[in-house]
Specification:
nine-stranded mixed β-sheet, six-stranded parallel β-sheet, alpha/beta, single chain, 10 helices, Rossmann fold, 367 residues, Dihydrodipicolinate Reductase, domain 2
Length: 367
């Protein structure tokens, strides 16, 4: 299928690299950016034929799917325009800034018979797929609890334009939370309720990266979020996301079950070490990864969505999954404001099993 890409900022490089050189069932037809110079530069770098405006891309009959990798504040508006133009859409996280907007996008897609896909697709990487397989096989028994930590000092020291990380729709929860929550949902299933609190260390941040060194950023969101996720299967997980931590020794994700414990790799990555300890073997040991997709494989969600469209089935990094994650993140904010637990109504789509005995660049549904 032919793909148009809207947004040529920092994250576009890895998408463009993989979608033009790795995944075999997609052709990047055109790119678009509000800054035409950025779009032109990426088109030249990756040998892409078209540099279009948004309107031209939406009107182009050659383009089947649009990848929306703009900043979060424009995700809803652009995705809605793409769907109304009759094209499938895959969007960077989060799906939108509100659960209400996300539901509307899924409703439009259903009405028009179109697909929505949403980042992150890291759970399709070798690390998390190995962990998911172990959970399904009962390697730790019945999941009981666990903890997940995304802790860092913030992005203003390295990102060239970090302002949106501290705006509405940003913060550690909406920026990095999707990686952790998506991984936990694929590992443990749907979330039933959220109880959370939040705070922020600074009312203002100073950019120390170039080219905006010294510029002040007002902090409009909580930058330290702590929540308890209660899952439908009975597991209870503590999730902490923070831009206020200078250094730490906490794990990315650890899961505890009736028969063992598991260390899950960084859900922002595609590979990493999966470690398992059981009642019999109480020391953590590495488990071999089940897939070749252990390097940065961003774009695998788009390739798998094309496979799903061709097979007329649900895609793995689906709109339903992205909406469930969005509702959970919104529940963090609502619970922190109300001081009460918030119950989740959405249900993620089931994961479709893939056959990982394939070469890099290929995907296959398991029979």
């Amino acid at each position: 299928m032919k793909l148009g890409i809207i947004g040529c900022g920092n994250i576009s490089d890895i998408y463009l690299k993989n979608l033009t050189t790795v995944f075999k069932n997609v052709t990047v037809q055109a790119v678009c950016d509000i800054d035409t110079a950025k779009a032109t530069a990426q088109a030249q770098k990756y040998h892409i034929e078209g540099v279009l405006t948004l309107e031209e891309m939406l009107a182009d009959p050659e383009i089947d799917i649009v990848l929306n990798i703009t900043t979060p504040q424009t995700h809803y508006d652009i995705c809605k325009k793409v769907l109304l133009a009759g094209k499938h859409v895959y969007v960077e996280k989060p799906l939108s800034l509100s659960y209400c907007e996300g539901k509307e996008l899924l409703s439009i897609a259903k009405e028009k018979g179109l697909y929505i896909g949403g980042a992150p697709d890291t759970f399709l990487g070798a690390g998390l797929q190995t962990a998911i397989k172990l959970i399904k096989e009962g390697a730790i028994g019945k999941p009981v609890g666990g903890a997940a930590y995304m802790l860092c000092p913030g992005h203003e020291s390295w990102h060239p334009s970090p302002e949106f990380y501290y705006d509405i729709g940003g913060g550690p929860l909406f920026d990095m939370g999707p990686y952790y929550i998506t991984a936990l949902v694929r590992l443990l299933g749907p979330v039933k309720s959220v109880y959370a609190v939040g705070t922020k260390a600074f009312a203002e941040r100073t950019i120390t990266s170039t080219p905006k060194f010294g510029q002040k950023i007002p902090v409009k969101v909580d930058t330290h979020n702590v929540g308890i996720l209660s899952f439908e299967n009975g597991a209870v997980i503590t999730l902490v996301t923070s831009f206020d931590v200078v250094a730490h020794t906490m794990p990315n994700i650890e899961l505890y079950g009736t028969d063992g414990s598991m260390k899950v790799p960084d859900p922002n990555m595609f590979g990493g070490s999966v470690q398992l300890a059981t009642r019999k073997e109480q020391q953590f040991t590495d488990v071999p990864l089940i897939s070749r997709y252990s390097e940065n494989s961003r774009g695998i969600g788009i390739s798998e969505m094309i496979l799903a469209i061709n097979e007329n089935r649900t895609n793995n990094a689906s709109g339903e999954l992205a909406l469930h994650v969005l509702e959970i993140m919104e529940a963090f904010l609502k619970s922190a404001e109300s001081g009460a637990p918030v119950f989740i109504e959405s249900v993620p789509s089931p994961e479709i099993a893939l056959d990982w005995n394939v070469e890099i660049g290929e995907l296959k549904t398991r029979n």
